[in-house]
Amino acid sequence: MRRPLVLLLTAACIGGGAPALAQVFPRSPDSQNRIETRINTLEGKPLRYLIGTDGTASGRDDAVTVVSYSTTQPAKRGISVAYCNLFDELNTGHYGPYLHSSDTAAQYNEGQIDPRGPGWEKNLREQFERRKKQGFTYIELDNPDAYKIKDVIGAIELAATYGLKVIAKNPGLMEGGAASYVAHPNVYGIIVEKGAGGAADMDALRRKAGKPDLPVWFVAFGSGRGWGNSVASAAKQYRNMGVTYSSAGEYGNVIDILTPSEGGSVKSAAAR
User: Fold this and answer.
1) CA–CA distance from 143 to each of 120, 131, 170, 200 (Å)?
2) What DSSP designation does 20 have?
3) Beta strands 112-113; 77-85: pairing state
4) pTM of the entire structure?
5) Domains recognised in the chain with CATH numbers
6) C-alpha distance from residue 186 to each of 78, 158, 180, 206, 239 (Å)
7) Residue 104 pLDDT > 60, yes or no?
């Protein structure tokens, strides 16, 4: 039974090469999608983490810019990420019921929405609809560590229904769910703040998640300059890792400590 199959393949090759072979063994749509999703356009790009500023950022052609909750349009140049919040950002009281277990929510006067109530999905959908209309493709979902992994994964999957790709925030703080968080196919990068892990931690995490080249950006402000320098020193040996510092309050500007170039060399730059 094998001989006719060999003859069929030989004839196909002679009759048209690759196109003919494609007819014999057509590529399935699922296989094509898997190949396409391996390409991450964020790899190798520095991060402009500017969630503490208002107004439209100028951006850079070679960079990724994260804009604030109140910013209404992408940066003028480069790739933009819109800040979104799993909390009630303005503490409006419109997304109840609320929980009261997060120190971060109390510190920033934001509402910790209960995922079991109707306000959870309402908050997410309103933000996703707004960001989609504003022209964003990527979003950051802040404060995931205040919730269970199943609730965070649900938010990531809901974002996907709006065509929005997610940047993970501080996954090292997710108890028992960090790997599944980062491994989700709709996660395209990681942002890490002081106290949420170092270079070796994040490299081990992305490898465990099956994404060894996933972009990782460490961000610091205020008294975090020393931490940023220490992380940059360790991150030099890893691909796709960058470190920035804000000297203008909480993420009001960007100073590169380490850029995620292939060589991983430390570069000093003026504040942008």
Assistant:
1) 13, 18, 8, 22
2) H
3) unpaired
4) 0.84
5) 1-36 (no CATH), 45-258 (3.20.20)
6) 20, 10, 11, 14, 21
7) yes
